Amino acid sequence: MGNLIKTSDGKALRNYPFDTEKSRLEWHFGVSFSSDSRLIAISDIGLGRFSQTGSRIEFFSVSDGKFVGCIQLQRDASYFAISPRGDQVAVLEEAAMSTGGAGDAKKARLGFWSVPEGKLMFTLPIPEPIKIQPMFAYAPNGKSLAVGHSDGAISLWQLPEARCIRVFRGSADPVSLIAFSPDGAIMASVHSRQAIALWRVSDGTLIDVIQSKSNIVQIAFSPEGTLMAAHSSGENRGESIIRVWRLPDTRLVASRMWRDWEVHSLAFTADHELLAVGMRTSRPRPTWVLVVKDWLDKIFRRRPVAPPPDDCGCFTIPFSIQKMRVGANP
After folding, report:
1. How many structural domains is the chain composed of?
2. Does residue 100 lie within any of the structural domains?
């Protein structure tokens, strides 16, 4: 079943069965939306398969849940990204390569597939010694793609020419996350999960590096690109840290730690409210999905009272970032 939830009040907008007649997925590991919200992509990428090789991505229409198309890969894939227009998907595929040594190495290929036809259009000519990390991101205009590497560099590729136009170098630590500001002017890269590097895309200048004592899981930009939020995992299970910086001066304007809410995803709404999605770790299993959205003066000064969950366990708690208090740098 597909269930779309309205973030403002947690009410179900639509509940319909996906058109699974043509689906060949045995397990659903992840769900992604295209930027224009027309398509939902469901895949088994990232899920260990022991009986068969080859990953699969399936696309369904958001409006009616109908099957649109699929990409069937001959290799196992570790990451994919949908272009802003939803007309192509970049996929990192890996294949075992016998080395004659104690273990087998993996050969990676970053290919671009058409949607919904599911045809391979082109691949990036990345030299073999340069290892691609399972992390890359389309620029907002869809005309370029930033690719992270294990040596800390980020290469920027012009599409569809597949031509490298710039290399960003600053940290030697592997790239674990990449995101662009909405206007494409700033690129953020996370290195070894504990440092955020901010780059000026036009000339590759390193603007600033923000250090963190905790592992950074995700970063998100506000619609106007004036704020950047990040959430990190704490040292103990159920600890989540959210921090917000003002751009471009990278001044920390908000921070907060939750000790019993395990945040899994972070995003800004169109009206600059900050949404955190996760689960309540203090609840007995099955844990409930949280859509956290409330005034931070309530959350920060006292424990919020959660409304009763609905049948699927979803509920909302409102908050805003204007009154987030700034604490020590976690």
Report:
1. 2
2. yes
